[in-house]
Amino acid sequence: MTNAPLRPVRIAVLTVSDTRDASSDRSGDTLVGRIEAAGHVLAARALVRDDRKAIAARLRDWIADPGVEAVISTGGTGLTGRDVTVEAHRDVYEKEIEAFAALFALVSWESVGTSAMQSRATAGVAGGTYLFALPGSPGACRDGWDRLIGPQLDSRHRPCNLVEILPRLRE
């Protein structure tokens, strides 16, 4: 960390679920709380059903919005037939951040052991916007934010961070 001031990132949160609504979205609440506590800006928040086209459409809307620099989705990263968040993310990626999945698996291993193999967390970039997909549990959202996304979206993190290359994503 450096002593430079934090450069707040404008982050949207997307919950993917067939069973949750705004009043029962604990994972989304977990992310929003951490985003705001870290000094970032909640740019938008939405909840969509487990539908590949609907998820991709919401992602594309936020990618096109200059007020959104990063999107974190929660839910739909598992192995069941309705889990299509990863496919929707990959439908819009220009570049996948492959190491994110591997690092998330390592972090998850420490929390949930072999159950970590059931997650298909992913991340990528499209239209100058970072896109992260986390599992739908509050614990996974805490682990993903606290150990991976939060530090990388902190402009003071060293030796490098994702914020410092934000202006160059559209090159």
The coarse silhouette is globular
Mean pLDDT across the residues is 96
Terminal Cα separation, in Å? 27 Å
CATH architecture identity: 3-Layer(aba) Sandwich
Order of helices and strands: EHEHEHEHEEH
Number of DSSP E strands: 6
Strands side by side in the biggest sheet: 2-1-3-6-5-4
Which spans have pLDDT < 50 for at least 5 consecutive residues? none
Fraction in beta strands:
15-25%
Could you name the CATH homologous superfamily?
MoaB/Mog-like domain
Given helix and strand content, the structural type is alpha/beta
Description:
The protein is α/β, with parallel strands linked by helices and 171 residues long. The protein has a single domain, classed as MoaB/Mog-like domain (Molybdenum Cofactor Biosythetic Enzyme, Chain A, 3-Layer(aba) Sandwich). Helices cover 37% and strands 19% of the residues. It has a six-stranded mixed sheet, with helices on both faces. The longest helix has 15 residues. The protein is globular and about 45 Å long. It starts with 9 loop residues before the first strand and ends in a 19-residue tail after the last helix. The mean pLDDT is 96.
